[in-house]
Amino acid sequence: MAVDRHLVLFARRPRYGVGKRRLAADVGDLEALRFARASLDRLRRTLGSDPRWVLWIAVSPDRPTDWTAPARAIAQGPGNLGDRMGRVVRALPPGPVVIIGADTPTVTRRDVADAFAALGRHDAVFGPARDGGYWLIGLRRWPRQPLPFDRVRWSTEHALADTVAAVGDRPIALLRVQEDVDDGLSLQRYLRAQGRR
User: Fold this and answer.
1) How many domains does the chain have?
2) What's the start-to-end Cα distance of the chain, in Å?
C-alpha cells in the first residue's frame, strides 16, 4: 500500500490587523496584509496542483476553513509553534511530511521535491532561513520517533540549531538558504531580490 507525501502550509487567515505583527510594526498593517495575501496565494498556486504530494493548509484560527480550498484544511490549535506543528504532524495520515510557512514566498516545487527526496535517506530535512530559523522542516515519521519541537527557542536566531539538536544523532539534510519574511528588513531584502525595490 502506497502512502501519501504530505505538504503542509502553515498559514494564518489573512486579515487586516491580525498576524504578521513584527512585519506590521515595521511597515504597517496594510502592507503586512498585502504581503501575507500575496505570499499565501503564490504558494497555494505554485504548490497546490502538484500530484507528487497532498497539500494541506494548517489554519489559524481553526475556523473558518473555506478560504483554504482546494487544499485540505487542518487546524493548528493552541500553543507555541512547536506545539502546533507537533499536533499537525501527529494528526496526518501515514507518510512523510514537509512543513513550510506562508512567509517564504520563494519556495518552489523543486524545493519541496528536494525535501521529499532527502527524506528517502534522512530522518529530517531543513530549509535554513537567513535569520537563524528555518522555512521548511520535513520528517520521515517512523513509529515512536520523537518529534524535535521541545525546548526550541521559537522566533529567535536559535530556532534551527535548537531543532537540529533535538533531532539528535539521526541523519538530517539541509536545503538552500531562503528569506523568511518576518520584519521590515527581511521584506526589503525579499523585494530587492525580486527586483521590486
Assistant:
1) 1
2) 50
Burial of 64 (0-12, 13-18, 19+ CB in 10 A): exposed
Q: Determine which helix (DSSP H) or strand (DSSP E) holds 190, and give its type and residue range.
A: helix 184-193
Question: Is 87 a domain residue?
Answer: yes
State how far the Cα of 8 lies from the Cα of 54, in Å rounded to an integer.
8
Q: Is residue 122 part of a domain?
A: yes
Torsion sign over Cα 147, 163, 89, 97: negative
- Expressed as residue numbers, the domain containing 77 is 6-193
User: Which set of grid coordinates corresponds to residue 16?
Assistant: 487586516
In a domain, 1, yes or no: no
Residue (of 98, 101, 88) closest to 122 by Cα position:
98
C-alpha to C-alpha distance for 106 and 176, rounded to whole angstroms:
11
CATH of the domain at 113: 3.90.550.10
- 135-193 per-position pLDDT tens digit: 999 999 877 788 999 999 999 999 999 999 999 999 999 999 999 999 999 999 999 98
Asked, for residue 45, whether it belongs to a domain, the answer is yes
